[in-house]
Write a structure and sequence with these properties.
Elements lengths: L2 H11 L5 H22 L1 E4 L3 E8 L2 E4 L6 E4 L2 E8 L1 H9 L3
Antiparallel strand pairs: 1-2, 2-5, 3-4
Helix pairs in contact: 1-2
Length: 95
């Protein structure tokens, strides 16, 4: 599912008068999640899951083409852990 499909789903499930209002609501949720991660380092949605900022240390890597060692800088990334209800809902779906 991409963002346009998500907006369509929000429009059909929610009580929105137009596609534009459903898109604004979707954007507001995404912006709120981003702000929460920036400010607090994590967002927990009970039953759905939790997003957390993790830190990766600087390390030495290797260029596979030349074999030369390179320094990989420290970075931050976002991890997601699915909640109990989300895991159960996904298990119930048929492949």
């Amino acid at each position: 599912m991409n963002k346009a499909q998500l907006v369509e789903t929000v429009l059909s499930v929610g009580d929105f008068p137009s596609k534009a209002s459903a898109e604004r609501a979707t954007n507001a949720v995404i912006e709120s999640l981003t702000a929460g991660l920036k400010k607090d380092g994590g967002v927990q949605l009970v039953g759905f899951g939790s997003f957390a900022v993790t830190k990766r240390k600087a390390r030495t890597g290797r260029n596979p083409q030349t074999g030369v060692s390179i320094k990989i800088p420290a970075t931050k990334s976002v991890r997601f852990r699915a909640g109990k209800q989300l895991k159960a809902a996904v298990k119930k779906t048929k492949a």
